[in-house]
Amino acid sequence: MLRASLKKEEVFSDVQRVTIRSKILLIVIPLISSALIISATINSFSARSGMTRIAMSALGFKAQELNKYMESQWNLLVTNELHEDPEYVGVAKNAITSYADTIIRTDGEVIFAVETADYQIAMATSDIALSEEERDTLKDLFLSETAGWIELSAGGTPRVGNAFFFEPFGWYVVVSEETSRFYQAITEITVRSAIVLGISLLMTLVLILMFSNYLSGPITRVAATMKRVISDNDLSARVEVEFRDEIGELAHTFNIMLNELQKAYNQIKGYAFQAVLAQRNERKVRNIFQKYVPKDVIDTLFANPESMLTGENRVLAILFSDIRSFTTISEGYMPDELVNNLNKYFELMVDIIMDHGGVIDKYIGDAIMAFFGAPVKHKNDALNAVATALKMQNTLRKFNAELEAGGKPKFITGIGINYGVVTVGNIGSQKKMDYTVIGDMVNRGSRLEGLTKYYRQDIIFSESVFRKVQDTFPCRFVDTVQVKGKTLGEKIYTAYESAGENMQNALKIHHAAMNCFYERDFKKARQYFQAVLKLLPDDFLAAEFIQRCDTYIATPPPSDWNGTEVMKTK
User: Which of 2, 37, 183, 359 is least surrounded, with the fewest CB atoms within 10 Å of its CB?
Assistant: First the structure.
């Protein structure tokens, strides 16, 4: 391999022989010394803990001896049947106080007892007054039956001590020492230990600083060379081999790596050039096929080609849009005018569909079939489909205004929308495939579009769509119909972009009228529909249902009538 074939001896022949092991020893020795110092510190902490236990034991011993003395005094009273004589009991208490004085060894020690009836001082070896808060603390200790080692405040001074109960006198007795005095020796040991530890750490730091540069210098220079290679892309840089040790081996290996990287870099540049050409070709393919296949389909195909070879069941929104009486309209145009206006119409409608996340499935003559929810599923596909339909009708009105201004017939469209499970995927043969949707829900969408002409509505959609959009757009219940080829009726609806006060009132009255109609109260329903006509004089639905009401008033429907309108044609 180029320079990699050079022998190590040839590379290292002129450098000083210093092993990495020697360098490690220069660091480990100081660290061991530091470990010994730290061990001594730990021993001092152990000594401090031992002193603490001895001091605690001393207070406990005094408490134990005092308790024995108190019991002996009480037994003496009981033996002589003087335990109920207040005078002799008082003498015994004074003797206990005197004995407590004899076991005091420091100025900070205080032995006291409180009456458990009122928690006032009953006996003390020195003058001490308890605050209300301190009495409450003693009360809590007594009620919780706390005996042995305690921490408390007495006479305004923090104390530690040993406590016990003496029931014959009703006393809670505390043998205590000031906290500061109790921990004084321990604090001194802690300070000394901290000083020793600090000195040890300082010594360790100094030693590490002394030898770290010696150890890390060559590595630092290797790193500097690496940075220069990264920042300047200069693969010709090399590291000087300073020692015949592991770091020298690292530098030598790094130089070999740079040789190989330089070779690989030249290969990568060639691959990058090929990748740029491939990306340009991909963009060309995308630009060409996006005119025939939706962009989402192309993106999915490039990301996962295998997934596009099979179909899958998915819940989609299906939209059908058709120009009514197109043959009649085309008679008012010259052929080239018709093609130009139709192309302009398709361009406007397709842009709206794609802006709302829809995919153009196909053009069927002058009709558009689109779907929402594949290959990329969106959060509100049914809502997007209805928003698309409303925008399409709004845009069509502006487009028609231009046509009528030029003296040309306007385009009138109907849009049907359904929402349900369909099969979506590539369907066809190996020579010709279409990314499309099939299924009963697709056929129903086409039937709904056909109903727009019968009911003279711009948009009609199924109940499954209504459930998804009722909280967003003002919706209107159109009818219950049984389309051709089906045996069951279904409710159909239309929607509006917005509804002013007049329209809102009309919708409320219309839905009340529909309720009466299906409850067979045709006279009341007729009155409601008449009210709708007053608000919306040209409303076809109100006029249609008034005619139905008149028919049913004159000839009532059979008992099994459910209001379903059966369609005889598509």
Answer: 2
d(CA 136, CA 129): 13
**Judging by DSSP bridges, how do beta strands 413-428 and 433-438 pair with one another?**
antiparallel
Give 12's Cβ-side CA count (13 Å radius).
18
- pLDDT above 50: residue 3: no
Q: Are 386 and 495 in contact (CB under 8 A)?
A: yes
Global confidence as pTM? 0.52
Q: What is the CA radius of gyration of the chain?
A: 50
Q: What is the DSSP string of 260-271?
A: HHHHHHHHHHHH
Tell me the per-residue pLDDT of 374-405, one tens digit each, with 9 for 90 and over.
888 888 999 999 999 999 999 999 999 999 99
Rounded CA-CA distance 556/57 in Å is: 107
Query: Cα–Cα–Cα angle for 558, 559, 565, nearest 5°?
Result: 60
Q: Per the CATH hierarchy, to which homologous superfamily does domain 25-187 belong? A: PAS domain (3.30.450.20)
Query: Rounded to an integer, what distance in angstroms lies between the CA atom of residue 451 and that of residue 415?
Result: 9
Smallest CA-to-CA distance from 414 within 442, 454, 358 is with 454
Does residue 170 come out as left (phi exceeding 0), alpha (psi in the -120 to 50 range) or beta? left
Backbone angles phi, psi at 194, to 5 degrees: -65, -40
Domain 306-495 belongs to what architecture? 2-Layer Sandwich (3.30)
